[in-house]
Structures are given as C-alpha cells and as structure tokens.
Amino acid sequence: MTNWLEHSVQVEVGAPIDLVWNLWSDLEQMPLWMKWIDSVKVLEDNPELSRWKLASRGFEFTWLSRILKLNKHQIIQWESVDGLPNKGAVRFYDRGDSSIVKLTIAYAIPGILGQLMDNLFLGKIVESTIAADLERFRDYIKNLPADRKQEIINR
Question: Whole-structure pTM over 0.85, yes or no?
C-alpha cells in the first residue's frame, strides 16, 4: 500500500506574470532557486519529458517527469514516469504588477511508514523547503538586473 503525501505553498512575487512564467517554465533553471534540485534536463527529442536529480544530505534521487498540462500564465502540471514517485502543479495568478505562485507537490511513501514519517517530521521538512524555494524564487527575480528581466519577458 502506498500513501501519497501532498503539500502546497504560495508566494507573492513582485513581478509581472510574463517574467514569472517565462522564468519558471524554463525548467532547467530550477536549481537556481530550488535547494534540493541538483539538475533538470529537458529531453531534446521530447520536450514534455525532463530528467530531474534531487540531492541533499548524501541522498540522491532521480526521476523522469512528464508535463501533463501546460497553460501559459496559468499552470504547469506534471507527474513522474519513472524513478522517485511524485506529481504536482505550479499555478500562476496574475495580479498586474505582481503574481502569485502556488506550488503543490505530492510524493508516494509506502504504507504506514509514510503516515508516521509525515506526522513526525517529513511533511514539515518538505513544506518548509518548498516555501523557502518559493521565497528564493521571489528574491531571485527581485535581484535580477532590469535589462535581464526585460530579456526574460521578451522570450
């Protein structure tokens, strides 16, 4: 029996939706603000697939992820097709001069172990990590030079 544990966090980013979307949807940039993500490589022959590598505290996990839904300025939804079982979505909300980014991640853990680990500590670690990742994303955009922001918007 496998349990799926799910966590959602959101952040307001003081930037227009074009900038936020264009930066986030460039999946290979994820390691710039996601602490545990070591690398992301979009497959050249199938851009709906990407190979992810998570590395933290001596642990390393990889998985192949498939984009299930991609609506510009609204949502990127995915699920793993091999490796570490996970799925989720990042949703974008346009607020004019700012944007809301909401990240939902779900991952599979076997049986009672998953419930126990989630109740004790795992859920808090995952949620605080993805909240910090979103804050790093917000700060990354905030600290980009104006000409770089314009370059990303114009993609």
Answer: yes
